[in-house]
């Protein structure tokens, strides 16, 4: 591995943008360079400002006029749902029972899991995503397959075996003890290996008994630094069912709160139909609300209330939620997110969107010291975008004269086709075949 200099227009955020014109929130270098070596970012600056001189033997990769950004981060996605995407259903519970719980049973087969895990990583990289928080299935071999693939590619990934012991077909159920034992063994084997992190993953309150959530709490107590990921307040039917199953707890977030599952490493997918009490509980524990716009529109679950979350100071991430979600692209995701917020009368500026898919999501995952920004010492996970990749976008670019407008065009019309290259740990991964 030799050092590389990536030359292009460099953009990285340093803080959360406060409105559409907050130029202090980012650094932009017109003829910039990112020097990468041994999987890390060594320096970032002006190309002609000594960066080339400082690394004279480095290979220069000229991406001009491409835009060089930190790799995209997806804070909620299901790799076993690659063949569920685009399934027709009336609502969440029908979608889960008719398609998802059928498809996920196939991951008992380690060979199938390995094939899909590899195709999944290919797809993330093709779309510019370098880190994701990933649900596997109930089968430990599904998590083995995913971690094996991510390790092979040296990707920074968070994942976990789903725990579920009721309201699902027999082939998808573990038991409280098995869920605990299998999760613990996977965590001990994979967490911290290379760039891998383990997420304790009770699917959601509907598919776990009290006993399972109690044993999940034991696991969280034993491994307080591990992630916890689950779903909450996605659809009204789901919420009514949760109330039936846990009648003595105040609300849906209160279920996870009762079992000690909230905290700064806890990612709660969806968070659409929230009470003030639930938002306060999330704020007090530092838990993260994960906005999944393509999924919420596709399944018809509802419109995320970003302003209410921000007013309550709840941490927010944004995610594809494939296969409830309909695209692997964080650009498509933020485009749909923009539309959800338009329908709610809320504003989401292009600077805020690009912050969210990079540094914002890194912060949501408490990984901002490693990913989400282009800074010396960080992981060399990088995406290069071209807003003129498609003829109609190139035409519109003739009328674009600010960075904000360019970002907005990339978000509104862009997808995998605007991703010129994705670097994983400093290596070009999109153009390389696995
Ligand atoms: N709630 C519980 N499981 C799932 C899932 O796989 N997808 C979505 N969108 N919601 C869920
Ligand atoms: Zn999900």
Report what the structure shows:
- The chain has 434 residues and is an alpha/beta fold.
- It has 2 domains: 124 residues, Urease, subunit C, domain 1, CATH 2.30.40; 257 residues, Metal-dependent hydrolases (TIM Barrel, Alpha-Beta Barrel), CATH 3.20.20.
- It contains 15 helices and 16 strands.
- The strands form 2 sheets. Strands 5, 6, 7, 8, 9, 10, 11, 12 and 13 form a 9-stranded parallel sheet that branches. It has a 7-stranded mixed sheet with strand order 3-2-1-4-14-15-16.
- Strand 9, helix 6 and strand 10 form a beta-alpha-beta unit.
- Helix 3 crosses helix 4, helix 12 crosses helix 15 and helix 13 crosses helix 15.
- The chain binds guanine and zinc ion.
- Guanine binds next to helix 2.
- Catalyzes the hydrolytic deamination of guanine, producing xanthine and ammonia.
- GO terms for molecular function: guanine deaminase activity; zinc ion binding.
- One of its GO terms (biological process) is guanine catabolic process.
- One of its GO terms (cellular component) is cytosol.
- Belongs to the metallo-dependent hydrolases superfamily. ATZ/TRZ family.
């Amino acid at each position: 591995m030799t050092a590389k200099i990536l030359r292009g227009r460099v953009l990285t955020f340093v803080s959360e943008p406060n409105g559409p014109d907050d130029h202090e929130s980012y650094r932009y270098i017109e003829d910039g360079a990112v020097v990468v070596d041994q999987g890390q970012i060594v320096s970032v600056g002006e190309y002609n400002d000594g960066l080339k001189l400082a690394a004279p033997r480095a290979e220069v990769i000229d991406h001009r006029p491409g835009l060089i950004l930190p790799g995209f981060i997806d804070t909620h996605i299901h790799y076993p749902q690659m063949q569920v995407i685009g399934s027709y259903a009336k609502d969440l519970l029908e979608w889960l029972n008719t398609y998802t719980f059928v498809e996920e049973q196939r991951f008992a087969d380690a060979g199938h899991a390995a094939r899909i895990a590899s195709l999944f990583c290919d797809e993330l990289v093709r779309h510019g995503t370098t880190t994701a928080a990933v649900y596997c299935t109930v089968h430990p071999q599904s998590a083995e397959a995913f971690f094996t693939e991510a390790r092979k590619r040296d990707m920074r990934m968070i994942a976990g075996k789903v725990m579920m012991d009721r309201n699902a077909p027999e082939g998808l159920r573990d038991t409280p003890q098995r869920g605990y034992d299998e999760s613990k063994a996977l965590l001990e084997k994979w967490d911290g290996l290379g760039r891998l992190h383990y997420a304790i993953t009770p699917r959601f309150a509907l598919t776990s008994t009290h006993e399972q959530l109690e044993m999940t709490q034991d696991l969280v107590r034993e491994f307080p630094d591990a992630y916890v990921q689950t779903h909450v307040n996605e659809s009204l039917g789901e919420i009514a069912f949760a109330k039936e199953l846990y009648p003595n707890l105040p609300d849906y977030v209160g279920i996870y709160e009762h079992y000690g599952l909230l905290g700064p490493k806890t990612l709660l997918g969806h968070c659409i139909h929230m009470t003030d009490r639930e938002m306060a509980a999330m704020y007090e524990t530092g838990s993260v609300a994960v906005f999944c716009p393509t999924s919420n529109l596709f399944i018809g679950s509802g419109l995320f209330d970003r302003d209410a979350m921000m007013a309550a100071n709840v941490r927010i991430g944004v995610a594809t939620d494939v296969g409830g979600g309909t695209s692997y692209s964080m650009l498509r995701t933020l485009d749909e997110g923009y539309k959800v917020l338009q329908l709610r009368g809320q504003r989401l500026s292009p600077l805020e969107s690009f912050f969210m898919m990079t540094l914002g999501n890194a912060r949501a995952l408490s990984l901002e010291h490693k990913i989400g920004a282009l800074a010396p010492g960080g992981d060399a996970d990088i995406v290069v975008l071209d807003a003129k990749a498609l003829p109609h976008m190139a035409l519109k670019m003739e009328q674009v004269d600010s960075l904000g407008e360019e970002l907005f065009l990339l978000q509104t019309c862009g997808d995998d086709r605007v991703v010129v290259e994705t670097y994983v740990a400093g290596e070009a991964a999109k153009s390389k075949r696995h």
